[in-house]
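Notes on consecutive records. When two proteins share a document, each keeps its own sequence and its own token line. Never mix them. Below: protein one.
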Amino acid sequence: MKQTCLHSRHVAQGALMQPFAGYDMPIQYTSIIEEHNAVRHHCGVFDVSHMGEVVVTGPDAERFVNHLFTNDFRGVPAGKVLYGMMCYPDGGTVDDTCICRLADDRFFLTINAANIDKDDAWIADHTEGFDIHVDYCSDYYGQLAIQGPEAEQVVETVLGLVCHDLSFYEVKTLDVQSPDGTPETILLSRTGYTGEDGFEVYASHATIIDYWDRLMAAHVTPCGLGCRDTLRFEVGLPLYGDELSADISPIMAGLSIFCKFDKPEFIGRDALLKQKTEGVARRLRGIELDAHAVPRHGYPVLFDGNEVGTVTTGYRLISVDKSCAVALVDSRLKLGDRVAIQIRKKTFPGTIVKKKFYDKHYKK
């Protein structure tokens, strides 16, 4: 079981630790509800040092990233971040990722922890013919996600990092001193996986530990992966392995806006364009249940008594106090249709709705 650089801090703080993506990770410190509400209304900090990082540099860096990535960096200036997917030729999803453009010839990729080895191999297998250099930096970087309406104030006052100049989906590098006094360049981005304003700090392990200790001394709420999932789910953000996978394409997931078909080419383009123009057999839909129940991943979805799909994620939502699910279902189902979810030996009726159950509050 791998450990992040903050593992001893989590254990000392009494966090509930469980395996996730090969790491021993904090699931909660006090309660998922308390930590969830801290992010919605104030500020919370997550250890996301288990995530992977890859840096691509060189004259062909933009062309290479555009070859792998469904979104389009042509004409996008340094300092911008784009979200999108890497896909297989058949349109299935290798991973979803945020990519930062740090310079004309330098890109910083963040990849999901469970996919690090797979993604590193996928990237390495497609470098032929490109004048680039790839650095696999997952062992170097730690990462903090500082999230919530008070995040900007916390980052500037507690960590001393100027961040008010960043707009949503922007990134910059900052020169700081590491705890031993040596110079270090860190990355600071403003994206967020919670539906609230938020920042991600990428730095060496020593600096991440120092920043965590400062945040704890300032009584910023430490948050586990439990509320990270409830927060992202409420605002309709996908999780790889649930709402995206080798069997769930961006089109099936309702993410075609991040597939730029006017690009000359990218891996999976033809298959995805066919799906978009001809339609898909299954797609992700939201479901709001009538009663208080907790749908879980894999539970069957029924329409007129027949199974038409399965739940990918479900919760009793904290911010809106409703039982909701996202499910991969027959694409013929439309908004307003009445369905049911089978939970163990009972069925609970509900309605097909949009996948976003709570409004995002990002910085405009």
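Protein two starts on the next line and is unrelated to protein one.
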Amino acid sequence: MNNGMQFLAGLFKMTTGKEMNIGNQKIEIDKETGEVVMRFKLG
């Protein structure tokens, strides 16, 4: 999962020229479906 966040942070930096604050991320797991949801604020 950390590799995925690093990838997204790299894409964000390439498109905006700014660093992405990945400290505000929230990870949720849906127990019914087994899906993992990552939320993070862009900005």
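For the record: Residues 20 and 42 are 7 Å apart (CA to CA).
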